[in-house]
Design a protein that fits this description.
The chain is of the alpha+beta class. It has ten helices and 20 strands.
Length: 451
């Protein structure tokens, strides 16, 4: 068992000096520390002194390699890297009180941020202490971060409000986020080195355990989603969805939870009923029936898509328009509201631009495919004969776009696969590809021109 560092202590052969002990945990002691010598001298860092793994366990070297791969994946994606604290280095220290060899990791010390736990506590004690719009921002930036994490095939396994730091940032919708505590996260495509060894299990926190954690199974991306649902309930609902359960440890396995109800409007997200449906689906005992991080991102943006259990009942305000069922082509329910009639694109013509060059346009209902755009770029080969239709919605008189289901590839609107018709907006990006493979070809920009 390693001997804990005292405040101000620097062990022989170690270039870090403890500033303040932050926590003594079952698996590691944590410190605010500073670089005492060498490059970056004086920099404040987050230092972890490990009790497990020790340098003598059978899976220690594999654990170090696993952490190197985790760091590589995070560092290779600028979007993900910006949302995670930096893993600076790991090392063994031998000598003095670390004579048997102690494993340390050094992380970025997140400054200027407040853990989500503190914000939740504030508005639970006083609903006016945190603006509703900020709670919505927290929900969105959280799900964007988890989406990028899952794209890298990383499963956090120990998501909880303490591990999300909200940082005021006027240039990023008011707040940015840093995910922390990845030392026992796992990769979906690479088994953890401690699996089945020395009695080691998977990290999680009571009250935020998924059913898989409680069953002793390997956590999945869907396990993170279960926990995200709990936090979304805390942020946007009336509290933790398991708050009324006397036995929180068994509730996830039994599918017991207090349904999340969202009472306030979420900016332009008017279809609250669908968002509630998707959040509550996070608690399904069957992980395959939970939404993905990307689907939660889309729902928080106001999109509505096909989902088992969604009846079409919503809290959509009466003044919000969506493409009419009588429009051509038929629009399958449910349909996503986009804007109020005052901002819809009536009495406009539609133009498509590839870069700065106008490549197509229409003032009548038109179905676009390869023949219309083959001269634009060689990537037009990814279009089908009929790819998407631009049409005037008969209910509102506004332009909408619908995907042709027979098309081989997806029609993608602003980075998301188009499932149901949506109203066109100036500056909207329309392309073709496969979103699950992150393939997007022939990006066209919509311009709406007054007649």
């Amino acid at each position: 068992m390693p001997v804990a560092l005292k405040d101000g202590e620097q062990r022989p052969t170690m270039r870090y000096r403890s500033v303040k002990e932050l926590n003594r945990g079952a698996m590691a002691n944590s410190y605010k520390a500073e670089v005492a010598s060498g490059p970056g001298m004086g920099k404040i860092v987050f230092l972890k002194q490990y009790k497990s793994p020790t340098c003598t366990v059978s899976w220690y070297k594999d654990y170090v390699d696993y952490q190197k791969e985790m760091k590589r994946r995070i560092d290779s994606d600028p979007e993900l890297k910006s949302r995670c604290y930096e893993l600076i280095e790991f090392f063994e220290n031998k000598g003095g009180k670390d004579s048997s060899g102690t494993f340390y990791q050094v992380f970025e010390f997140v400054e200027g941020g407040i853990p989500l736990t503190d914000y939740i506590k504030k508005f639970r004690e006083d609903s006016a202490a945190v603006e509703w719009k900020h709670r919505v921002i927290f929900a969105r930036v959280m799900m964007f971060a988890i989406d990028y994490l899952h794209k890298a095939k990383i499963i956090h396994t120990d998501l909880k409000p303490d591990n999300l730091f909200m940082i005021p940032n006027p240039g990023s919708a008011g707040f940015s986020l840093k995910l922390i505590d990845f030392d026992f996260s796992i990769m979906a495509d690479k088994q953890a080195p401690w699996h089945g060894k020395d009695g080691a299990g998977y990290v999680g926190t009571p009250g935020y355990h998924s059913p898989e954690h409680l069953q002793g199974k390997i956590p999945q991306m869907a396990s993170d989603i279960y926990t995200c649902g709990l936090m979304l309930g805390e942020l946007l609902g009336e509290g933790h969805p398991l708050r009324k359960e006397s036995d929180i440890a068994k509730a996830p396995l039994l599918g017991k939870f207090e349904p999340v109800k969202i009472k306030q409007p979420i900016n332009k997200v008017e279809n609250i009923g669908f968002l509630e449906c998707i959040i509550n689906a996070c608690f399904n005992v069957d992980p395959d029936k939970r939404p993905t991080a990307r689907q939660l991102v889309n729902a928080l943006k106001g999109e509505v898509f096909e989902w088992a259990g969604w009846t079409g009942e919503s809290h959509t305000s009466s003044h919000v328009a969506s493409p009419s069922a009588s429009s051509k082509p038929p629009a399958p329910l449910p349909k996503a509201p986009i804007e109020s009639p005052s901002t819809l694109n009536k009495d406009l013509t539609v133009e498509f631009y590839f870069g700065d060059k106008k490549v197509a346009g229409c003032s009548l209902d038109t179905t676009f495919g390869i023949a219309h755009l083959k001269a634009v770029h060689e990537d037009s080969k990814f279009l089908s004969k009929e790819q998407f239709t631009i049409y005037k919605d008969t209910g509102s008189g506004s332009w909408a776009i619908a995907h042709i289901k027979s098309a081989t590839n997806e029609t993608i609107v602003d980075g998301q696969a188009l499932v149901n018709p949506v109203f066109l907006q100036d500056g909207m990006r329309v392309s073709v590809g496969k979103t699950d493979k992150h393939i997007e070809k022939l990006p066209l920009t919509i311009k709406l021109i007054q007649k």
